[in-house]
Design a protein that fits this description.
- The complex is a heterodimer of chains A (about 170) and B (about 210).
- Chain A contains 6 helices and 6 strands; from the N terminus they run ββαβαβαβαβαα.
- In chain A, about 35% of the residues lie in helices and about 20% in strands.
- With about 170 residues, chain A is an alpha+beta fold.
- Chain B is mostly helical.
- In chain B, about 70% of the residues lie in helices and about 0% in strands.
- Chain B contains 12 helices and no strands.
- Chain B has helices spanning about 5-20, 25-30, 35-45, 55-65, 75-90, 100-110, 115-125, 130-145, 150-160, 165-180, 185-195, 200-214.
- The chains are: A alpha+beta (about 170), B mainly alpha (about 210).
- At the A-B interface, α5 of A face α10 and α12 of B.
Amino acid sequence: MSIIFRKLAQKRHWDGKPWTEQDDVQADVVNCLRTKENKLSVFMLDGSSSQIARVVAALAVTRDSIANLDLAIAPSDILAQCGIRTDRAPGQTPDPEVNNWHQDLVDLTILQLARLAVAIRSKGQIKRYNLKKVEEAIRLSLNDNYIQTERINKNLQFSLAKRRIVQLH
Amino acid sequence: MNNGDVATDSYRLEHRYSLMRNSATEVSRLKTDGDFRDRINSMIIVFRNVQEYSHVGVVTGFASVNSSIPDVFVPRQIEEHLDYLCSIAYDEPFEVGIESQFSRDLQRLCMYNPSAVLQSLRTRLMDNSTNSSVSAEILQWASRQEAATIRTLVVNLLSAGLHHPSSLVRDAAASGLAYLDEDSAIAYLRQAFEREGIPELRDDLEDLIHSLET
């Protein structure tokens, strides 16, 4: 089953709150669905855990430090239910194959975003790759040569070297 | 930098600094680009000691900031500077793992008096006087401080964060302790897990403890 994968700014924004109804979410989830030019970046995957881990690693090495990576996954058919179009657009990670899985949700409206947020909450999953799991995902991608060390964020390289995940020369 | 640039920069800085002196509200609304922000950050610290503010003073101060940086700032100056940084950080969109302008500003301030900065931050955390997003960002920044001399202060700050009323801050504190990889982290996290009332965060804490133990 095909799924959409979206990196989130903060998993806590998706927690239930006393004032949120069952099929509703906190307003702060908009921080996780920031659009640019009415587009939202997602990855379309086959749903396998190995693909998810590979995307996690590819995104994690673009950041400045090792940290949790929060993500949302949901069946891709929610896009049609929300009336959302997609466009193929290459991603910007150091893993070329992951970049091929990237797509943009385009021509978005505020109503579509709200529906998308609710659909993710009700039909998808909000997950966290904690620090250790992110490290492991990066290690796997490096071992399998999906990512080259020199393409990792420079700020992150020293941190990874100290944790013996990469070797700097 | 030629004299013309200094004069233009000085005029802008003089104008902006006069706003800062007048009210904290003005400070929180002040929009500066990164370049001027860096200079203003430095100049606030310098000019707190200047009784008479003048155009000549700005130019002189600008030059002095560029050429020499005071070694130590008294805690009162740290407090004032943190007030300013926390107020302008309110609107900055933070993301876990991404260095923010706010964290860069904190890093610069910490160079001058790390103990005073961390102690002040702990006080702000405990009295809940700082916005929860900003507090969470403070904890993420703190956990990345590697100096052994301030390690204890960092751990104290993060463990205090585990008791914060905001789940965002508790989460950041837990993640920060995990990042430090301290021996004491698991004990703190277990206590936090026992106390935690939000199911999703409780699950994350359990998962984190399990990861650290294996």
